[in-house]
């Protein structure tokens, strides 16, 4: 399972003074997509904490292509696109109900140990997703 879809409806608190969704809300929805992706493979926050591991954001790139407005039904597509020795990368794209692409986003995370604060190999449950269907 490399890819999932997360559905979202733009709420009044998402709208800024320009009448469209504030850029920071996109980031919140991307995070929701990642949490849904991890939940789908059976990795929760507790999973990480009880093993003294985490994933820290190393690189983040987002391109805003089209605005989202109040009440829009959105889909965030979250796909694991790369796994390295200590890092992994998600591609996330957001679409409206007409299937128009609103954003594209790429995030790279590094696995690390919560106590030593050193990089660790990507856990197998994540790396296995690159080969599963």
Folded structure, characterized:
By secondary structure, the protein is of the alpha+beta class. The protein has one domain: Hotdog Thioesterase (Thiol Ester Dehydrase, Chain A), CATH 3.10.129. The chain has 3 helices and 5 strands. The protein has a 5-stranded antiparallel β-sheet. Pfam families: 4HBT_2.
Provide a compact summary of the structure.
The protein is an alpha+beta fold and 133 residues long.
Fraction of helical residues: 10-25%
CATH class assignment: Alpha Beta
The strand count comes to 5
Number of domains: 1
Instruction: Assign the structural class, choosing from mainly alpha, mainly beta, alpha/beta, alpha+beta, or little secondary structure.
Output: alpha+beta
Strand arrangement in the largest pleated sheet? 1-3-4-5-2
At CATH level 3, the topology is Thiol Ester Dehydrase, Chain A
Strand content: 35-45%
Number of helices, counting only DSSP H or I runs of 4 residues or more: 3
Helix-strand string:
EHHEEEEH
What is the distance, rounded to the nearest whole angstrom, between the alpha carbons of the first and last residues?
Answer: 5 Å
Catalogue the unreliable spans.
none
Q: Per CATH, which architecture? A: Roll
Largest sheet data: 5 strands, antiparallel
**What integer is the average pLDDT?**
95
Shape: elongated
Family: Belongs to the 4-hydroxybenzoyl-CoA thioesterase family.
Protein name: Acyl-CoA thioesterase
Keywords: Hydrolase
GO molecular function: fatty acyl-CoA hydrolase activity
């Amino acid at each position: 399972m490399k890819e999932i879809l997360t559905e979202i409806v733009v709420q009044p608190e998402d709208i800024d003074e320009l009448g469209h969704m504030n850029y920071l809300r996109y980031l919140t929805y991307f995070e929701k997509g990642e949490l849904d992706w991890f939940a789908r493979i059976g990795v929760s926050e507790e999973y990480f904490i009880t093993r003294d591991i985490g994933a820290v954001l190393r690189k983040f790139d987002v391109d805003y292509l089209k605005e989202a407005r109040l009440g829009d039904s959105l889909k965030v597509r979250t796909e694991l696109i790369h796994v390295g020795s200590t890092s992994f990368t998600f591609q996330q794209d957001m679409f409206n109900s007409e299937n128009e692409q609103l954003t594209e986003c790429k995030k790279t995370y590094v696995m690390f140990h919560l106590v030593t604060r050193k990089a660790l190999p990507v856990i197998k449950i994540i790396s296995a997703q690159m080969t599963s269907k």
